[in-house]
Amino acid sequence: MRFVMTLLGVALGAAAYGAEPQTLAEGSWVCATPEAYDEAIASERKGQDPQALEIELRAKCIRMTSERLADVMAPFVAEVDRSGDKARVSFIIEVYERGATGAEARGTPQPRGGLNRQIKYVGWTAAANLRAQ
């Protein structure tokens, strides 16, 4: 019975996240709203520096650099919704911070001298930015 429950859980999990794992195109934007995504793309097309633009829009958008894409955790990127040419996606990025943390300063040891955090992102991007993993 436990095997059947496990198998059912795996099957339902695969169905919920799509049959094939997905990721995002390098350099793509994921924003809190479709309008914020359009703003990021319009600014980028005007020739604004992507790094400066990322700082300007950090409250509502994240640019998917190669480093961030490498830190996206399985089941990678799930498409939650679609509206026209945009897709609402969800994914988790694991961030590893090296160096002294508050816990280390208090004498609590951290694994490998740093701290792992998992941050869940839910936002909008162009559906064309989704790629098979």
Descriptors:
globular, disordered N terminus, three-stranded antiparallel beta sheet, single chain, 133 residues, 7 strands, two-stranded antiparallel ribbon
List the helices and strands and how they pair.
Blueprint: H1 2-16, E1 22-24, E2 29-31, H2 34-45, H3 50-56, E3 61-63, H4 66-70, E4 78-83, E5 86-98, H5 102-105, E6 114-126, E7 130-132
Antiparallel strand pairs: 1-7, 2-3, 4-5, 5-6
What is the number of helical segments per DSSP (H or I, 4+ residues)?
A: 5
Specify Rg, calculated over alpha carbons: 18 Å
Order of helices and strands: HEEHHEHEEHEE
The poorly predicted ranges are: 1-15
Task: Provide structural commentary.
The radius of gyration is 18 Å and the shape is globular. It has a 3-stranded antiparallel β-sheet, with no helix packed on it. It has one domain. The chain is built from 5 helices and 7 strands; from the N terminus they run αββααβαββαββ. A hairpin with a 2-residue loop joins strand 4 (78-83) and strand 5 (86-98). With 133 residues, the protein is of the alpha+beta class. It has helices spanning 2-16, 34-45, 50-56, 66-70, 102-105; strands spanning 22-24, 29-31, 61-63, 78-83, 86-98, 114-126, 130-132. Helix content is 32%, strand content 33%.
